[in-house]
Amino acid sequence: MTFNSILAVIHLITAVCGLGLITALALMARKPGWANAIFMLQIFKIVVWSLIVMLVTGVGMLWATDWMSEHTWWFRISFMFFLALFAFHGIAQGTLKKIVASGTPLAASPLLGKLRTMTMLMSITLVLIVLLMEGKPF
Ligand code: HEM
Description:
78% of the residues lie in helices and 0% in strands. It has one domain (3-135). By secondary structure, it is an all-alpha fold. α2 (21-30) runs antiparallel to α3 (37-64) and α4 runs antiparallel to α5 (112-135). Bound molecules: protoporphyrin IX containing FE (HEM). Protoporphyrin IX containing FE binds next to α1, α3, α4 and α5. Protoporphyrin IX containing FE binds at residues 8, 11-12, 15, 19, 54-55, 58-59, 61-62, 69, 79, 82, 85, 126, 129-130, 133-134.
């Protein structure tokens, strides 16, 4: 196994196991009666560490392939989406922290709508990144 393929395997496992949890966050924001806010905060932490692993392994793969993909549009656009995903994550996590600090149940919080929007945007950006990174259409 080459260094590049080891990084690619870590990249893919982290995408599936770590970032896959974004769907669970979006689902819990849609069904707040069944969700647990403290558990959701724990998932947000796993997701941010997964994003860091994606960045490190992604940069590692670029380095191992002499920065070949750096000039392609699929990479440039997906990297913009990656930054957007990071931002949506920060806003969603901050919103949930405010909800928890206020002591209001998740289902009754006036901030629930913002949490729903942000977790939905996280899911959509994740799908777009996977489409671009896997399909490399241009
Ligand atoms: C949400 C974050 C990310 C997701 C879900 C994601 C997902 C993927 C997927 C599914 C592949 C295809 C693997 C394959 O075809 O074998 C891939 C490849 C790749 N990704 Fe990512 N990625 C993410 C972030 C990043 C970042 C931040 C970078 C770089 C800074 C990066 C760089 C790369 C590179 C260089 C490849 C290899 C492309 C090739 O086959 O030549 N990725 N990624």
